[in-house]
Amino acid sequence: MLRRTAALALAAVLAAGAAAAPASADDLPFRDPDLPVDERVADLLGRLTRDERIAMLHQYQPAIPRLDIGAFRTGSEALHGVAWLGESTVFPQSVGLGATWDTGLVKRIGDATGTEMRGFHAQDPAAHGLNVWAPVADPLRDPRWGRNEEGYSEDPALVGAMTDAYTGGLSGDDDFYLKTAPTLKHFAGYNIEERRDRVSVTVPPRALHEYVYPAFRPAVESGNATGVMAAYNLVNGRPAHVSPLLEDVRSWSEDETMIVSDAYGPSNVAGSQGYYENHAESHAAMLKAGIDSYTDQDTDSSLTVDAVTSALEQGLITEEDVDRAVGHSLSIRFRLGEFDPDRRNPYSDITPDVIDSPEHRELAREAATEQMTLLKNDGALPLDPEQDGAVAVVGPLADTLYEDWYSGTMPYEVTPAGGIADRLGEEGSVSAAEGADRIRLATPDGGVVTASSAEDGGVLRVQDSGGGGDAEEISVFEWGEGVVTLRTESNGRVVGLGEGNRLFNDQEQPNGWFVQQLFRFEEVGDGQVVLKYDGYDEWNRKYVSVGEDGALTVDADTPDQAARFEIDTLASGTEQAVDAASGADAAVVVVGNMPFINARETDDREDIALPKAQRELVRAVTEANPNTVVVLESSYPQSMPWAQENAPALLWTSHAGQETGNALASVLYGDANPAGRLPQTWYRSVEDLPDMANYDIIDSGHTYQYFEGDPLYAFGYGLSYTDFEYGKPELDRKRIGEDGTVTVRVPVTNTGERDGDEVVQLYTSQKRSRVEQPVKELRDFERVHVEAGETATVELEIEAADLAFWDVTRGSTVVERAGHDVLVGSSSEDIRRTARIKVDGERIPPRDLSADTRAADFDRYSSGVALVDETKAKGDAVAGSEGDWIAFDDSDLRGLSSFTVQAARAQDGAAGLEVRLGAPDGRLLGTAGVPSTGGVYEYTDVSAELDTVGGKHRDVYLVFTGDLRLSGFSLTEG
């Protein structure tokens, strides 16, 4: 293994001293592809100066001409195709890929993306780097997360399978060389955008080992992922960039891994997070924790170089620390083939002509089709092209496609209306209506907002009315939470904030990091409104005024200072949609989200309901045409109970890329049988969701594993145009040991008249346990094609190791002796067949509190408790305030009469910890007072005598009587 031998190899190189210089750089040992890679890394490290090695810690590693080494850049985006580099094949969003439940397809998409990345690399090797930051392995625990579209699923097993498949395609199938070097995002505990660089999430040991690690570990363990990216947030009070958890990642792989920071993450540690006083200390801590590449200040590496150099000079780190990190990144560069002859590298002959190839276009269509998920069908689908040839395609997404922040640039766009029109051909007809109101904004003194008709737009101004026309017409699109976008009909461009804080009509769609095309209308009385700019640059959210030259300018601090407008509705979008639908054989209403608005990076959703205007549109069209299909094109689950109750058919798709329209049409008209399955629970309302800051799904009772409510749609749900019957599952054994495997064979018969795919899902439910177990948990799945009238036998597996959970009493995984229900079905709620197995695991003994017990290893805790950093470098402690508690279940208290705690209290005065039995207000055994220690990292040992307890095993509660931190404790004999 490279990391075990590289240090020794480097030492040997350095000890040998300066040898005679080779004839050329090509003759140096690090250029010899027949040498072991660890020797090559060591040789190259030994030839670099200290300054050159430090410079290589930055994302933009400079060229070293004297060794004929080119520049290298970490970090190209490739979540669902190559992003940001120009036109490329755009596949469905990751959440859509998750809905395919097809790891083979996802691997092929990863392979195509990796191939196109190589094509871009051939165009510009320095700028188009082969270290790709994809995929996102964070489980989608909360559908309000702004980056929901970037992940695969709420279930860690499904996430792990998908990330392993996608990275397998990205990295290629050579034993040594990498097509690209995939990096998993974002490790760890990342799922909140608001104050994401300052929020600390509490991730107890069970949540970490049972929910976080299973999502990240498979791709790293298989060698398909070459590293991870540290998350912005803090985990248990410590920035993820300095977390000791990063070293756990390294332990999962036999190959060398490279751990990178997120953009500007290194600056945050001493900046917004204030965790260290200066960058020298923070950069030293990051280096020791495992960060190998600092993504900071864009191309300017001076902060990184200066901080690391200062840390070296202060003795905070050693050159060995620098060499270790640089060695990690160099090992990846070697495996990418950078230093080898092209003939040795199987990927060196990939050229730019692979980008947007016909094969990749076909794959994009296949993927878009496979992720289409049928949510309801009262017989409206599939449509009949002869009977349903006149179709009204209406709604804000009816005739447009949207890209997201991490999307590539689509080389062409087949919209829903366009795809349906192509499918029907000359025999059918398609009418489209966006369902957006068209208005005119007038001022009380008779002026009218007018827009430029130039293709590249101009400044919006208030002028005397010219008698109407396109220049005065604005279409309003409502996206929920009061946010609207405005499109001028003079040139079809979206209005946004531009130079001089003036409004311009110059954008094709909302875009950019700050998304400057968002507005709100606020009523101010007398039938008048003011217009507020609502872009993502929060410091500039002001109101629109009218300048002396008539220009609309965002510069008013309050509504009173803003210009007032009267809204004259020229045409009702809903009425236009109803008119189109009323005269059609069928209506297709396409609603959903715009990926740059109300949920994206830096912005979480406040609600999960479909926007009000879209709800009204769905209702009106459905009532106007009984043959209405509602298509939800969305990056995340949306609550739409009325549509579920009343619409004849509902279909969900993610923003599925360039082939969305063709894929949708093929499903609507039955050319393809839908088989997408939901990769996350769809809740009925935001009331079903916990506090978003509660990352612990066991405590909050969420995701399908712990949710006991009534979801709108269950995890794994999806319908088909045919029916599948499940036969009795056959198990090759019904009793296994801790290392055993059960093979489950289940016959699946297509009893309908159409060929189709079924996603066979296998769950287990543990019947008896020391701890709270999931209601059910996904263990295996397979998407299988079954022709009409035929039967396919699906073979699934349950490994005893997968049934293990984290035993907080001993700090290790355990397979418990227990019975497990084996549940086979079409979704987490649609279980068709069951069986039972027994696992000969171990019984967890009662807790031994006489040994030192880590406070963080509690079984349960109150809502006010948080896990925090015991020290800046390592360890977790428990922080609580008066009335908070932590519980340690099934504890053996026989003969124990003394209580010792390790606690810290920064505040003046004293607090304490009560020891109680059975409940937070149960029998009091004793109290340990904790004096002020002067700081949160200053711990002291405090002891107290306890009342003795009989020989029964009891649940012990430690109850806080004031603010303090508890790192550990023990109960001993007096």
UniProtKB/TrEMBL annotation:
Signal peptide region: 1-25
InterPro entries given in the database record: Actin-crosslinking (IPR008999), BXL (IPR044993), CBM6 (IPR005084), Cellulose-bd_IV (IPR006584), Fn3-like (IPR026891), Galactose-bd-like_sf (IPR008979), GH (IPR017853), Glyco_hydro_3_C (IPR002772)
Keywords linked to the UniProt accession: Hydrolase, Signal
Record-annotated CBM6 domain positions: 851-972
Hydrolase in keyword set: yes
GO molecular-function terms, A-Z: alpha-L-arabinofuranosidase activity; beta-glucosidase activity; carbohydrate binding; xylan 1,4-beta-xylosidase activity
Biological processes, Gene Ontology terms: arabinan catabolic process; xylan catabolic process
Function per UniProt: Catalyzes the hydrolysis of a non-reducing terminal alpha-L-arabinopyranosidic linkage in ginsenoside Rb2 (alpha-L-arabinopyranosyl-(1->6)-alpha-D-glucopyranosyl) to release alpha-D-glucopyranosyl (Rd). It is not able to hydrolyze alpha-L-arabinofuranosyl-(1->6)-alpha-D-glucopyranosyl (Rc).
Family: Belongs to the glycosyl hydrolase 3 family.
The name this protein goes by in its record: Exo-alpha-(1->6)-L-arabinopyranosidase
Taxonomic source organism: Streptomonospora alba
